[in-house]
Structures are given as C-alpha cells and as structure tokens.
What does this fold into?
Amino acid sequence: MHVHIVHAHPEPTSFNGALTRITEQTLTDLRHGVTVSDLYDSGFDPVECGTHYAHQANAEAFAPLAEQRHAWRTDTLPADVRQELRNLERADLVILQFPLWWHGPPAMLKGWFDRVFVSGGIYTSSMRYDTGYFRGRRAMVSVTTGAPEEAFGHGARGGDFDTMLWPVHYSLHYLGFSVLPPFVSYGIQGHGYAYRDADDLAEHLDRTVSDWRSRLSRLTDLDALSFPGWNDWDGVGQPKGRSEGPEAFGQAGRTAQDAQT
It folds into this structure.
C-alpha cells in the first residue's frame, strides 16, 4: 500500500510534526510506501488567484473554476498543483495531519483543497461522491486539539468533532474517497487542563502516540464512515423518501470515537 501524508502545521517541532514523522516511520516499518507533502515547508501558496495561470481562458476576469477546467484541458496547471495531484493519484490512502484552529483546519489546508481539487479534472457534475475520481481509494484525518476529550461532544463547550470535521470529510467523499474514522489527539497543548504536572502530560502524550501507532497497524481493518450517494437522492438532490431533512445523513462520524484506540 502507498500512503501519502498531507502535513499542515507551520512548526516542525510541534506534536503534529512528531505525528507525521511517527506515521512515516511506522508505515515504513510495516513495509508500506510513504510520501509527505509538508505544505508550510514547501511554501505552498494556498490562495487561488489568476497569477497561478499563465494562459488564462479569460484575461479580463478571473473565474477560478473556469480557469481550472481550462488549465486541465490544456495541460497548463500550476507546477505545485500538478505535483500534489501526482501524489494523490499514487496513493491508496491519504492522511491529512493538522491542528484544529478555530473549529476547522488551518487556512493552509483549506487553500490546498481550493487549488488541488481541480474542477473539470478530478471532479465533474457526474464524477462526484460514489462515482468520484478517487473511488476505491481511502482517506483519513489525524487532527490535534489542546482541550481534553471530555470537553467535546454534542452541545459541549469544545464543540462536536463530527460537525467540525464534516466539511473536510464531505469534501473527501465528494471526490470519491472512502473516508475512515478520524483520529483525534486531545489535550496536546496541556496548559494544565487535566494534567497534574509535566509528567502527567508526558504520559498522556505517550499514550496518544501508542494509540496512533495501533491505529496505523490495523488500517485494513477499519470500516469507512457512511455517506449518501447518487442512489440516495431524488432529482433535485434531496433524500429519497425522507422528510427529516439533512439530519438523516448527519451521523457519518458517530463511530469515530469507537475507533480511537
């Protein structure tokens, strides 16, 4: 199996940095192929704009999706985007490693989505969801947060991780990936949240790393989260035969905490 890690944290010595290095080493020891895109280290530009396109279809006004489609057709995509696409196409599994910032991923990772998920290339009006470009491939989120696990949940102070990760998970599903349950590393900053002292925090971090290694060793045993597909919708995109609204398919991440260890 080949695994590609998309790493989105600006500090190499951070816990996110450590997790990426641990992931690379653990998977290599398990004889998987591994590649890494370190978005900050590579200087990836997350801002989609006209300067990325030397041969615009319309030089008068920048329409991002139209220019992406034109660049795909004419084989003039920006070099950094072409490299990221090569990494994705090679991978059987994609792991996104990032911290939770303001209840979502860093802008760097969102910008990576904006630029690399190329309209007309890896998705079209009919090539989406369960007929997506990356059908048969898998993806997984590994995310860190400073607050303890007890602070999260539906209606809890820290928020509900299912809700906060929904845009990332659904975008991956949109491209056809089978999305595995996320791995959440809680209480990483410490700051005395639930820890008596530095030794208590160190023990917690060691436990988190052990749990992550365990998860990586049994990737093939993990069931994907459940998302709706084309057969679940009517002609306008509403759930067939359902009156309860979008909540009917809002439980995609509910099994996530069961898979943390």
Remarks:
- Helices lie at 15-29, 64-73, 79-90, 107-116, 161-174, 198-217.
- Residues 190-196, 250-261 have pLDDT under 50 and may be disordered.
- The longest helix spans residues 198-217.
